[in-house]
Amino acid sequence: MAAALQERLQIASAEFQKIQAELATVVEARQKLDAQLSENELVKKEFASLTEDNTVYKLVGPVLVKQDQAEAKQNVDTRLEFIKSEIKRVEGQLKDLGDKSEQKKAELVEIQAALQQAAAPLAA
Questions:
Q1: Residue 5: closest CA among 105, 106, 115
Q2: Which residue among 21, 25, 86, 118 is the one 20 to 30 A from 36 at the CA level?
Q3: Distances (CA, A) of 34 to 18, 75, 108
Q4: Separation of alpha carbons 14 and 22, rounded Å
């Protein structure tokens, strides 16, 4: 019985580590999205202070290309909407993985307790 519990413990532990790795990846993605959101909000704020006479340039590869101001503003607004929707999606993933992690942690504790109970009669 102890061998079966030990095997269950190893499997559950491996699954828990996999969930933790996924969680770390999703947290990293969330942080990148936060940085992109801040950057794009800053650009939008800068656009708000532009006048009609100001020229907007877009970096295309190594070259700056003149761009229509209205088009540039629209691109930033679209990018902001996309980033916000991605943040919502990633938040959902974080919640889901957090729940899975807690369930797996509880399962690990349960298996460890069963192993300790199985080992207790042997020690006595």
A1: 115
A2: 21
A3: 24, 18, 33
A4: 12
Tokens 């902001």 locate to 80
Q: How many residues does the chain have?
A: 124
Write down the pTM of the prediction: 0.80
For 85, the token pair is 């929707």
How far is the C-alpha of 103 from the C-alpha of 96, rounded, in Å? 11
Residue-wise pLDDT for 52-63, tens only, equals: 899 999 999 999
Give yes or no for a contact between 44 and 76, defined as CB atoms under 8 angstroms apart: yes
The pair of structure tokens assigned to 38 is 């801040």
Q: How far apart are CA 4 and CA 26, in angstroms?
A: 33
